[in-house]
Amino acid sequence: MKWKIRYVYLEEQFKKQRPYLANISQVVKRGDFTLGKKLQEFEEKCAALLRVKHTIGVATGTDALYLTLKALDIKAGDEVITAPNTFVATAAAIALTGARPVFVDVRDDYTIDPNLIERAIGSRTKGIIPVHLTGNSADLYPIQEIAKRHKLFVLEDSAQAFLTLYDNKPVGSFGIAGAFSFHPLKLLHVWGDGGMIATNDSALAKQLRLWRNHGLKTRNEVDFFAHNSRLHTIQAAVALVLLPGIANIIEKRRQNARLYKKYLRQLEPQVHIPENICAAPSRSIYANFVIQVQHRAELIAYLISRGIEVVVQYPIPLHMQKAAHYLGYKKGDFPVCEKQADTILTLPNHQHLKTNDIRYVAESIIEFYTRFNK
Question: Is the pTM for the entire model greater than 0.90?
Fold first, then answer.
């Protein structure tokens, strides 16, 4: 189908290939493909933006979570709390260590509900992974208070939240570490998979640099058997081209979000646009613009007929996936998450959209409900 308004925008993103190829050429000429100069430069610049002491580039966002859990000595018999509405990688990273994911329901803004966390804490609980979903910040201060009271770590899943702010400070810098993804559909992305860990803990950073590189202390000395999960220097070279414009990309997405809200507020409650309800001021980057709608299937069909590409992220909560059956959860255990799964819809929201594009999407949604209500 020929779309008028695309959700996926990578073709436009990489039209101007010359800057990327110039950076890649430098890597090729030096031959420093693993842990090279461009990776070091990228890590240093990201650390400055995220206001942390250390960033460690790794192969994927999943590895950013998994390797941090391994470095924190999470293992079989342990439990780690997270939300059930996130991408599979969050729970998978926990499960791959041998530990058990423990889910807690979310709030209207899609982030884990701090008021429900303590009842999920048991004798085997080691930590909490709040997920900054859609670019919204989880409510970090109450989560940190709970973690401190129970001597738990907080590992922030910031895969969708590069430069989201909580109390005017970037997320990923509050907990023991923050995990980021540079998947092609992230605001800051590479030509494939990529990830990063941010931390202010120097001892943890040292361990993580070993965990991503076979446990090699030197080229010929291995401290412990570990993984090969380095962010490729070529991928860092790609991301370095995007990095200087990341603030403009975020501001454009925020402008899009303001327009969507302006046009669609009139449709409440048939169209619900959640606002962040954190204890401290927060600033979403709108990695995704997610609304909750009535008559979703019919609306999607109508938008497609109008040439508008939309997606549902994620229609099946993790606790209802086949992979999670062994955890013993059932339908009804997390009612807010489950209701959202039945109503959420992600609209196109990227930096290549024009004002008229946003208006066209919004007017199409208004037109659908006007017709549906007759």
Answer: yes
